[in-house]
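Continuing the batch. This is chain 6 of the set; chains 1 through 5 are on the previous pages. Same settings as before, nothing changed between runs. Recording input and output for traceability.
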Amino acid sequence: MKVKKLILLFDGECKFCNFWVGLIQRKKAQHKFIYLALESKEGKELRFAHKVDLSIDSVLVIDSDKVYDKSSAAFKIAHTLGGFWNLTFVFWLIPKPLRNWLYDLIAKNRHLFFKNRNSCELHN
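Output for chain 6:
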């Protein structure tokens, strides 16, 4: 039986984003996702195919023909991870515009969080 993998697109140049992708991989979920940088050729092709503006630098999760971005992508990742991560769904009660505003606030400052981190190792 072939397991369908979600596609996780992330900012490959962002150390904060790489940290979270590495954490996801260590949580035994490395085989539940295909990891691609937004800046990669494949990432750009997927964004074009799904009509996602290339200026968007949010984390994206593609599940078949559905594209999740910002806080919705984060919840999709948490749901896929399961276990303890399901507790994050309490934040689903927050209206989406407010959740995305908080997401954007963190995203705007994400390059400040891991300034001293040198590299990230990803495995597909």
